[in-house]
Design a protein that fits this description.
Chain A is built from two helices and four strands. Chain A is α+β, with helices and mostly antiparallel strands. In chain A, the strands form two sheets. Chain A has a two-stranded antiparallel sheet with strand order 1-4. In chain A, strands 2-3 form a two-stranded antiparallel sheet. Chain B has a single domain (about 25-250), classed as Rossmann fold. The chains are: A alpha+beta, B alpha/beta.
Amino acid sequence: MPTIDVNIERCKGCERCIDACPQEILGMSQKLNNKGYKFAVMVDEPRCIGCSQCAIACPDVAIEVYVEGAHYQFFQY
Amino acid sequence: MKKIFASTKGLTDRPTHYCPGCTHGVIHRMVGESIEELGLRERTVGIAPVGCAVLAYEYFNCDMFEASHGRAPAVATGAKRSRPDLILFTYQGDGDLASIGMGEIIHAANRGEKITVIFVNNAVYGMTGGQMAPTTMPGQYTTTSPFGRDTAEVGYPVRMTEVITQLTTPAFVARVSTHTTREIVRAKAVIKEAFRYQAEGRCFTFVEVLSTCPTNWGLSPREAVKWVEKEMVPYYPLGITKRPEDFTEEWKDGGH
């Protein structure tokens, strides 16, 4: 199952990943990180399709994308 | 679990100092990925500008040099002429390249230096506090144009890509954007193509990237992205305006 790993301390809470996600399964946390920003969290993990659009849109390289088994690449990056 | 997207070796691990929503981070990552994927990182020298990206030498995992304000193409010219085996890129903002460094960029382009220029256009002077830049949009509020840019007084914004395009010598000139994921994917392909031309010793390459500056525009990061799409893209049309004459489709790396 595809999933993402958000590096909490790198995230600055710009919410660009939320707009980028085609499944609309990302949201902002209620907690703050050490810099004082709300960080991105995945609210509905089973629906992630591993398209890595959130990671491409992230200006702070805070998101890593993992997939398991065969995975269809939607586009070449 | 297979990792399909992670940070690149072209960047260091240091978190950037840019404001939330600033797309400098995306452009840094695209440049780092391009030089790493083309296998050029060990012989790449980047020239940092003066502006928000003044600390770019902290973030790129290659040799970096800090030039005086606007003089990055001149420094890159010297380095490239003395060591033609090196890959040179300059990373400049609009206050750096389109204002004080106008003379350097025009003549570096006209001489056809084999360097790559990444021009980050965010329509404002970011580091110094949001003053009006040559690329500020008509009617845009900045700290030095509190009633909006008056075109009768200071003229219209400079379209640097078109200025470089009308010169005969430079062969690869493009304008890309970062306001959607789709445009970022295209921009990455264009930047990679530019570095490939330089690695082949082919031509001067110039890539303008439309960027956001949420802090100085007074918008949230999400509104800033929409502002780029609504205001900047109609005035600064995207696309590759010039390519080498012997271009063939197989050189193309996706995108446009």
